[in-house]
What we know:
The complex is a heterodimer.
Chain A: H1 2-24, H2 32-54, H3 56-86, H4 90-117, H5 125-150, H6 157-183, H7 189-209, H8 225-252
Helix pairs in contact in A: 1-2, 1-7, 2-3, 3-5, 3-6, 4-5, 5-6, 6-7
Chain B: H1 2-23, H2 31-49, H3 52-58, H4 61-70, H5 75-108, H6 116-143, H7 149-169, H8 178-187
Amino acid sequence: xxxxxxxxxxxxxxxxxxxxxxxxxxLLSKHPFFYVYICxxxxxxxxxxxxxxxxxxLFERSYWAIQLLTLILGYGILLEILNNVLGxxxxxxxxxxxxxxxxxxxxxxxxxxxxxxxxxxxxxxVVEFERNLRFVQSVFIFGLVAVIAYYGIPMGRNMKxxxxxxxxxxxxxxxxxxxxxxxxxSVIQMWTAIQPLALNGSLLIWLIALWSYCPNPSPDxxxxxxxxxxxxxxxxKGLMGAIRAYIGxxxxx
Amino acid sequence: xISLIFFVFVxxxxxxxxxxxxxxxxxxxxxxxxxxxxxxxxxxxxxGLLPVELVQRVFAREDLExxxxxxxxxxxxxxxxxxxxxxLWLAQVCTQIRSLQRFHGGAARHYARLNPRLELQLxxxxxxxxxxxxxxxxxxxxxxxxxxxxxxxxxxxATAQACRISEESLAFLKAAPMGALGSQSASx
Lengths: 253, 188
């Protein structure tokens, strides 16, 4: 019993440390959605442990309900990243929202509509449901990473840590849930402990990254880009003409 | 089993992307540096790397035929040197394309009127072009400079496509025609 309480106890300590440090460093108002998630996760863990001690029969049902609630709150972290990292770059933000919406619709169809046509009656529906939700989150995170990398958007320590921590947790959860769904009751105990351990790892990353306020580098708007850029566009058009002529010659040869 | 492999693959992809994000070194912010780099990239591509004469010179089979017939003893040396030149050319093309892509990304991210569809097309074009360059580098490294003449043409075609889409994507940056402004000021 004590061994099974150790991992959630460490998680609670890290979450409490995050909230305390967030209060002292005045980060609560800067990243409200993130700290709502941490708060929700802390309360959820305390409730889950209390239910496990008082009434083990109800534990499994309450565990999945808490897990899904914190999963939904986790979307707040993605919103934080979208607002804080991409907010100063309207073009990149627009691109991220459009492609994120498209990816969400595709992932939603895969995760929730396909099982309606190919239902699974094996009794492991909750594991499958959470796995699919984690998959949708993975698609979002991967899309955000791709936009940030493609547009070369700089990130401060706070945002980078938030993204790395949540990305690792979501990826680990998805894989462990996929293994648990595939293996069923024969899965070894290790796989059921991976998700809470991954959460503790992410909490540690967040505690280090969010120890103090570290804003993202602000974009430089002082250069009159449009004037020089028009000259660049006219040169690009000249280059395109040369390339088209080259293609024409190569095709004729 | 297939679904397990799929989710594990997605998980590994996530780990790799997050790891690369954590290790990414920030590029310095600054429009003037990016402008200079992009101008140099355009100049290098336009004047130095993509002209037909240069590409045909690098990959000309006539040189190989001449060496085979007139000086077969130096064939191996010739092949090595020509391969090095071809690899250098490909590396330079890749570098300049990456520089253009970085500049485009650095400028486009600020504009709220950006067209997501065109941006996606441009991103796919750039990625395809860079992948083709890398693949061609491998082919030339393994098979020599005359191993894939059609791939050379394909790389040039993809470059033209990226430039065409880039032109479309940047259309909203065109200045308003001065004639309309001139007639309005005259009427006032």
